[in-house]
User: Fold this.
Amino acid sequence: MAFKDILGNSRVKRILIKGLQKNKIPNSLLFWGPEGVGKREMALVLAKTLNCQQRKDDACENCVSCRAINAGNFPDVLEIQIQPEGNVLKIEQMRILRNMAYLKPMMGKKRVFIIAEAEKMTEEAANSLLKILEEPPLFSYIVLMTHNPFLLISTIKSRCQILNFLPISKEDIENVLVDKGYEKGKARLVSLLVHGNLRQALSLEWEEVQDRRKQAWQLFLSLIRKEGLSYFLRSYTSSQRVLIREEWEQLLEILSSFCRDLILIKEKSHHQLLMNPDYEEEIREAEKLLSREHLMDFLAKIEYTLYGLQKNFNLNLLVSSFFLNFRESEYV
Assistant:
């Protein structure tokens, strides 16, 4: 994989390519963005390009260094992962990194250390890493990756160039899935669920998607029918239930797609524009229960809750607020 093969985040690619062309890549980088948007892939391509024997602005994919890094057996590129015991990055790992960083490359031109889930460093590990970030050797590069930079100590962030990764667009994910053999309609629905996480899109089974859509439709009906609100209470606000942010994001995206389909039907749009054509009969029945104004209000509530999830607001408060907003509304 080369820079040209990485989907999305063209701004990050431009910055890195320009830095490589001018030989001005910072020795310490922080890749910040959601999971599954290509941070690791970008770090590996950077490592390949820094060691490529044929090119200086992208990985050639053909030289000995590029092939060895792709195979995971290049001694000058090291990926540091969290330890299963304790789910943290330990000080011992940072000490090994420090010792290796001061040794000249064994085979390549540069040493590259890629630290996954950098926010999970212990305080001791972070302080140990800080020592090398203050004065890194010219031949060593450290790439930290995180989806939550606010958990990193400020002194580490201040010593890194921060590159912000964005979610992959729904259109790009849909195109990738179609290339993988998905029907276009199914690819569109999956792209809605994953919030720009390409890795998750490629791993989702269609049966799993169908189960979540069925769950979302039941929730949709419970919210527009006063007698059905007990379903919502039992299923989503029980004190025994562990709320999962990703699950809520997916449910809300599907709810949003149902709302949009209802609006299309109200506007007498062509049925081929529906995002859930296999639910057309059920959607037409539900359309009788809601006015266009109610649907727009419903959609606004969903979008507000999605916004809160993306801004990392308290999940329990968001879910409670979502329920209370519907209890106070008069849809039927």
